Amino acid sequence: MKKRYLLLEDGKIYTGEAFGGDQECIGELVFNTGMSGYQQSITDQSYNNEILMFTYPLIGNYGINRDNLESTKPTCKGVVVSEVARRTANWRMTMSLPEYLAQQNIPGISGIDTRAITKHIREHGAMKAAILNEIKSDSLETLNKTKLDPEVIKESATNNAYTAPSVGNRVVVIDFGLKYSILRELSKRNCDVVVLPPTTTLQDVKEVDPDGVMLTNGPGDPMNISDSTLKMIREVEQEYPIFGICMGHQLFALANGATTTKMKFGHRGFNHPVRNLETGRIDFTSQNHGYTVNRDSVASTRLEVSMEEINDHTVEGLKYPGKPAFSVQFHPDAAPGPHDADYLFDDFMKLMNENKTKHSRKVIE
């Protein structure tokens, strides 16, 4: 097997075997603790600019299928595994994981101790890394000088509006790098979905005449979002029910005066326990984020913290008292992951039903 190298910005080098695409890459190295769902994770746009490392020892054993894609074009920079499956078997699969990564020109590296690297990141924090085909004298210098693109939402989100028509509540989905699983959950509830780009204005939303608005997940630092987007959220929440997920949750917080901060190593996995502070209910949730809402900053806003992560008490949910507007940091769409929290989509449906717009509907061409 061809050798390949994982170089960390602190100078650590790990030697493994190459699979997938042939190109080299630089990105932020993050780890995912899920035991399955590698296909959904690799195609999740929230991993844009990141090298995705799996802690579970064997990855790729059920191949790739067309039904579990979360986007048509993955944007993670690379994939790191302890062992890539040599044999794959699943009746739905269309190709193996190495074949898929080669098709998408995403480099992979296997045969290294991913759990040791995870412990290193947990101790020292998330850091840049490079997947290289050879180590050169200036490789570390090049890695440390490389700046990651802060405008990743522009690459991950749609530039054009599109629809998924149905007969139920009309929902505007503002795309910051959405997962298809969000659209699937809305479709299950017969929602008439109109997806709009992140440059959407209040007027754009009004022209669609929705019953509610959803703010999706997406990659990068929420502080890089434009002031016009935050203004749009403030305006929309005054007129329509609103539901934010992951990046959408962070933008909902920023729009209302709270702040966000980068976490030491983030939450990426499918077993994070979250407590509802109003009911005491505990759900296991699917999460993928490297930033969090500063809890202390919420006190100076009109928002209230509605949910928290049990282990580290980070903010997992916000609500706007007196308004049909709320958000969660985790993924109730759970693809992959537990479905404990999918009731939140039903809560969103109830808010829309209670706040139906009174004027006549416009026809979406």
From TrEMBL:
Its EC number is 6.3.5.5. It holds the Pfam family CPSase_sm_chain. Keywords: Amino-acid biosynthesis, Arginine biosynthesis, ATP-binding, Glutamine amidotransferase, Ligase, Nucleotide-binding, Pyrimidine biosynthesis. InterPro entries: Anth_synth/Amidotransfase, CarbamoylP_synth_ssu, CarbamoylP_synth_ssu_N, CarbP_synth_ssu_N_sf, Class_I_gatase-like, CPSase_GATase1, GATASE. SMART domains: CPSase_sm_chain. It comes from the Bacteria. One of its GO terms (biological process) is glutamine metabolic process. One of its GO terms (molecular function) is carbamoyl-phosphate synthase (glutamine-hydrolyzing) activity. Residues 2-132 form the Carbamoyl-phosphate synthase small subunit N-terminal domain. It is an enzyme of class 6 (ligase). PROSITE patterns: GATASE_TYPE_1. Residues 1-170 are annotated as: CPSase. It catalyses: L-glutamine + H2O = L-glutamate + NH4(+); hydrogencarbonate + L-glutamine + 2 ATP + H2O = carbamoyl phosphate + L-glutamate + 2 ADP + phosphate + 2 H(+). The active site is at C246, H331, D333. Pathway: Pyrimidine metabolism; UMP biosynthesis via de novo pathway; (S)-dihydroorotate from bicarbonate: step 1/3; Amino-acid biosynthesis; L-arginine biosynthesis; carbamoyl phosphate from bicarbonate: step 1/1. L-glutamine binds at S46, G218, G220, M247, Q250, N288, G290, Y291. Small subunit of the glutamine-dependent carbamoyl phosphate synthetase (CPSase). CPSase catalyzes the formation of carbamoyl phosphate from the ammonia moiety of glutamine, carbonate, and phosphate donated by ATP, constituting the first step of 2 biosynthetic pathways, one leading to arginine and/or urea and the other to pyrimidine nucleotides. The small subunit (glutamine amidotransferase) binds and cleaves glutamine to supply the large subunit with the substrate ammonia. Composed of two chains; the small (or glutamine) chain promotes the hydrolysis of glutamine to ammonia, which is used by the large (or ammonia) chain to synthesize carbamoyl phosphate. Tetramer of heterodimers (alpha,beta)4. This is Carbamoyl phosphate synthase small chain. The gene is carA.
